[in-house]
Design a protein that fits this description.
Helices cover 0% and strands 48% of the residues. It is mainly beta. Strands 2-10-9-4-5-6 form a six-stranded mixed β-sheet, with no helix packed on it. A hairpin with a 6-residue loop joins β5 and β6. It starts with a strand and ends with a strand. The model has no long low-confidence stretch (mean pLDDT 93).
């Protein structure tokens, strides 16, 4: 089993930057496709970015392309999300998750972190 912990969230002004981190203490992220998701209050959880198990392929939702970068630090078993040029509409709770080989989430809570709040003011 694994244990995922996100960190790096906070409150910033529009145009600012944050760097989110997700450490997996029980599994090797290099064995899994990994994704960042975000959720606004009262809404579903939306996919933001994914990175392949080897780290050579990434995908981003259109609204964050050119602003967000997902990356791996294999030595620290950590996945990062660098968020630049933040906008108020980026405000959400951000979650990391280990995904299957078809980039689908597992239906088990230990494949998800607890979330970290990102708030962007105008």
């Amino acid at each position: 089993q694994g244990h995922l912990v996100e960190s790096g969230g906070g409150s910033v002004q529009a145009g600012g930057s944050l760097r989110l981190s997700c450490v997996n203490s029980g599994r090797n992220f290099s064995d899994y496709v990994t994704g960042w998701f975000r959720q606004m209050p009262g809404t579903g959880r939306d996919r933001v970015a994914t990175i392949s198990s080897g780290g050579d392929y990434t995908q981003y939702v259109d609204s964050v392309k050119g602003r967000f970068t997902i990356s791996r630090d294999t030595a620290k078993n950590t996945v990062h999300l660098q968020m630049n040029s933040l906008k108020p509409e980026d405000t959400a709770v951000y979650y990391c998750a280990a995904l299957d080989d078809e980039y689908n989430p597992y239906p088990f809570t230990d494949y998800w972190g607890q979330g970290t709040q990102v708030t962007v003011s105008s």
